[in-house]
Amino acid sequence: MTPEDLVELEAIKRLKYAYFRNLDLKRWDEILELFTPDATCAYSAGAYSYEGRDAIVEFFRKGMGSETFHSSHKAHHPEIALTGPTTATGVWALEDRVVDTQWGIVIQGAAFYDDDYVKVDGDWRIARTAYKRVYETMEPLGPNVTLTASYWATGGRSSLPAPE
Amino acid sequence: MTPEDLVELEAIKRLKYAYFRNLDLKRWDEILELFTPDATCAYSAGAYSYEGRDAIVEFFRKGMGSETFHSSHKAHHPEIALTGPTTATGVWALEDRVVDTQWGIVIQGAAFYDDDYVKVDGDWRIARTAYKRVYETMEPLGPNVTLTASYWATGGRSSLPAPE
Amino acid sequence: MTPEDLVELEAIKRLKYAYFRNLDLKRWDEILELFTPDATCAYSAGAYSYEGRDAIVEFFRKGMGSETFHSSHKAHHPEIALTGPTTATGVWALEDRVVDTQWGIVIQGAAFYDDDYVKVDGDWRIARTAYKRVYETMEPLGPNVTLTASYWATGGRSSLPAPE
Questions:
Q1: What pLDDT sits at residue A164?
Q2: Comparing C-alpha atoms, which of B83, B68, B57, B77 is closest to residue B134?
Q3: pTM for the full model?
Q4: What's the ipTM?
Q5: CB C99 within 8 A of CB C147
Q6: Which of A77, A79, A94, A114 to mutate to test the interface with C (most CBs of C within 10 A)?
Q7: Cα→Cα distances B54→A110, B51, B63, C65, Å
Q8: pLDDT digits over A116-134, tens only?
Q9: Contact criterion met (CB < 8 Å) for A107 and C20
Q10: Mind listing the pLDDT tens digit for each residue in C82-121?
Q11: Domains defined for chain A, CATH in brackets
Q12: Which of A46, B74, C20, C104 has the CA that lies 20 to 30 A from C112?
C-alpha cells in the first residue's frame, strides 16, 4: 500500500459516509447519486434484495421515509481493497438503531457489509452492497421513553434543560 | 486531495478524538486546550450555546462532572475539508449514550456535527462546534439494570466473573 | 507525521479491525494469528488477564463461544503512535453490546484501550492489549424483545418483512 492508495481509500470511505448521512437524514435524491445506475443490494443476507439504484432508493423511501422513523446507522472498521484502477471491495462493521415513534418500536443490531465499488468519471460509486446480520432485535418502545429531540419534530433541538 | 492533505486530516481527527476522550473521562483542563480561546459551541441545534472556551468547559463541568454520570460519545464518518492552510471544516456523525446512576436515567441519541477548525502554532484547534440531533431519548434506568463497572466507582474493573 | 507513517497507521488499524471482526464472528483460529505468541491481555482493568495468545483465545472461546452469545464490539477514535520502526502504541475507545439469548441478558458498555503492537516479518501484531471501562451495565433481556436475526440461527437474515 502506498500513500497514493490512501487517497483512494479516503475517497471510498467518504462515499460510504455520505451514504449513511443521506440515509439517516432521508435525502433520497442525494443518496441515489452515490450508486451506479445498475447497482444491486442484498441487505440482511438477501432479505431485502433489489436491482438498480431506483429500486434500492424506493426501498429506502418506503421503509424509512416517515419522519417518525429515526435511524442511526454507523459503519466501522473499514477493510477496503483496491482491486484495480477503478474497482475496489470493502468490508465494514455496521451498528444501527431505529426508534420509530409512530409504531412504538426500537430495532437495533449489528452486521458486516461486503461491498463492491467502481470509479466512474473520477468519482467512486457503490456497485454492489450486501450485509449479513450478527444479530438484530426488535422491542416495543417503553412507555417511559421520552423523545427529547428529533431532526424533524424539533429541528434537532433537545428539550432537556441546560445545567444551571 | 494529496497524501500530504491526509496528514492534516489525521491531525484534525485526533483533535476530535482527544476531545471525546477528555470529555468522557472528565479531564476538563485537557479539553480546554483543544479549543481556541474564543471558540463557540451550539450543541443540540443551539439549545446549549456558549461563547469562549471557558464557558464551554464550564457547561461540561456542570452537566457532566458527576462521577455517577457515565457517558460514551462516539464520532463517526468524518467528512473533513481543508479550506486553507490553517482552516478546515468537519462533518461528523455522533452517537452517544449516558447512564446516570444518581438520577437513574439513560439518555441516548444521534446527531450530526458541523465544525470549524483552525491551525494555531502548528496545532489544530476547535474554533466552532455545533450539532443537530437526529433523535434523542430519555428513559428511567430500569430497576433490573446493574452497573457492573465504572471508571470512577470501580477503577474501570468489571464485577462480572471470568468464564471458568 | 508523514504520508508513509499513515501507511503504517492504516496497517495497524486493520489489525484491530480484523481482531474485532474475528471476535464477533467467533473465528478463533484467525484471531489467534493476530497476536504475538507471548502476547498479554488485561481486559477490564485486569479483571481478565492472560499471558500468551493461546490463553487469551481460550478465554474468548469459553466466554463468547456459544452461538446464542451475540456481540458487537466497535473500536473508535484511534490515537496510534509509531514508537520505532517495528513498535507502536494505540489508544482506542470501545463501545460494546452483548445479547445472550440463552441466559437472557444484555451487557453494554464503553472502555478505553491501551495497546502495544509490534511488526513481525512485515505484519503488525498485538503484543499487549488492555482496557479500562468507562462503564458497563448488565440487565435481563426483556420479555418483549424478539431476536429477528442471528448470524448463526438465521444465517444473518432478518425475519422483518420488507416494506410494501
A1: 84
A2: B77
A3: 0.98
A4: 0.97
A5: yes
A6: A77
A7: 39, 8, 14, 49
A8: 999 999 999 999 999 999 9
A9: no
A10: 999 999 999 999 999 999 999 999 999 999 999 999 999 9
A11: 3-140 (3.10.450.50)
A12: C104
